[in-house]
Amino acid sequence: MPPKSKKNTLIMVTNVGSTSLQLNSVEDEPFIDKAKFAMKMLVEKKIFLQPKDEIGIITMGDETDNSQDMDYVKEYNEHLLIPNWEMVKYINGLASTKHPCNWIEALHVALCFIKREVVNPDSTVFLVIFNNFKEDADSIENYDADNIIGDLNNYDNLHLLFVGENPLDEESQIENVTPSEEFALSVIKQTQAQYEQINNFIESRRFFMPPPTNSMAWKFNLQWAGLNIACSNYVKVESENIVVTDSTKLSPWKMAAVKESLDFLIDKPKDGSNVNEIKEENKQEVFRANIQMDVHRNEIKQENIINGYKYGGKYIPFSDDDEVAMKYSGSIKGMMVYGFVPQDEVQLECWTGSGSRLIVPETDNDAVAFYSLVQAMVEKRYAAIVRKVYANNNLPRMGVLFPKVVYDDVWGFVHIELPFVTDLRIIQKRPIQSLDGSVNKEKLDALDDFIDAMTIVDNDPEYLNPGMFPNVINQYHWNAIADRVLNPKGALLPLNGYLKKFLEPPEYLNEKVKTHYEKLHKLFGNINMHKETTKDKKSAHVAPKIANEPEKTGATKDILTVGKDNDEAASDSEELDMSMGELDDL
């Protein structure tokens, strides 16, 4: 069971004054539009993933409406509110005014708002200030940075983030830094506050991801050769089909119906009101319920039902006592090493258990014995066969421990549960004939160059690095729901451009492989693009037949085939489906 997440508070302060519409030399969109989009994303993320958090919105350069009577500062509400769609509509409706803006006065209002509304001293408060820092120098010079720094340091759980128009880090060479930016930098250097450029802020938060939490460890004793090593087990990778958490699953469908007491479905309202609006206002939620019924469709109460099994045409009842007697008992919580096997002998189908988990020593006293075992298994290239019992009187499960030794990372064991024999599926193997003599060195070098050109190196681009790929399905789900709330009519939101880039090869890779593709075309003859059909998918279980002819390469959706003519290429492509695999549609 994961630890309970703490309720956080988000305060957003944004500039809607006369300077919010100004453009710099490299931007084609006013700052206020980007700030509104960023605020909208933050509120939508709270609605979807952190609905219990609280939010406050403050605008500077707006009409005066705040508890401190600061000029041109407005509070959206005098109290903190849970995230809702009215906030999103309010943010979308913000417009630039002709009033001056002063982020220092807005910061003072925000700190007073936090002091008044945040009653839990352990609550974490995130204060985000969106401003392009183009205030007049006279309005900034009247304030003392030391007083502001002292006020900020009085809050232990306050995280202040400035989001501005220009990159103000040391690597960026920005000319004509405004006095307002200099004042903000002086505050940042002497506090825990941070600064982020607004384009980077939006790009890094386009995907809604739940905040990271500390994993809860499963503590046990690892028994081996008479030793008991106290260990902790942490979830490393979860299999979403088996272990589903609140952060990975989407909310289920909810149904609603119009109250039967209304008769507007027959007669149009006489007051001229919109029928669709009345329907929306008078909807009530529909709940699913499981009702037990007999063969005559009579409802049966739960207390009158006896559980049982039906085999051989006969119903076999099982009482509660029988169920208790059937339960396995006698096992003790822990993990026991049964033996060791070479890592190369662990077959691929044995890696299909319910996710993988990382095991580390519990205390420093157990670390010596634990890491000695890890080091020995690394040197011998062994894996350990273990028997795991999650809790007393639970059924044991068999698994494999692989030593994990990576520089500048946690050392330990990776535990993978072995599947039951009934869960295994047989894959018939076919011998593959040698290609020696049919492919010369020039063709092999061309293929190597093609693979090198398609290889993605570290940080190029960063979003395609292993472990960085986000859940595009979930994000499009959030985007579509948010768009439907704000625009109830019309077509659904199309797939956004920033989502498509995760589903298509980068443009620079296509340019890199263009020359290599032409070389392959010259060396291997005809190269045709074969579109995968339904027939191809159904025949994917057929193993490929490798003939004594030049090697054929394939892709998942567009399959490259090599042959003497189009007819041969089309027939050969059907045999390549199994060898190349099939990419699940996203």
TrEMBL record:
Domain Ku, first and last residues per copy: 297-435
Positions with biased composition (Acidic residues): 568-586
GO BP terms, alphabetized: DNA recombination; double-strand break repair via nonhomologous end joining; telomere maintenance
Assigned keywords, A-Z: ATP-binding, DNA damage, DNA recombination, DNA repair, DNA-binding, Helicase, Hydrolase, Nucleotide-binding, Nucleus
Localization annotation: Nucleus
Region of interest (Disordered), ranges: 534-586
Pfam (any one): Ku
GO MF term list: ATP binding; double-stranded DNA binding; helicase activity; hydrolase activity; telomeric DNA binding
Residue ranges crossing the lipid bilayer per the database entry: none
Cellular component, GO, one term: Ku70:Ku80 complex
InterPro entries, alphabetized: DNA_bd_Ku70/Ku80 (IPR006164), SPOC-like_C_dom_sf (IPR016194), vWFA_dom_sf (IPR036465)
Protein's recorded name: Ku domain-containing protein
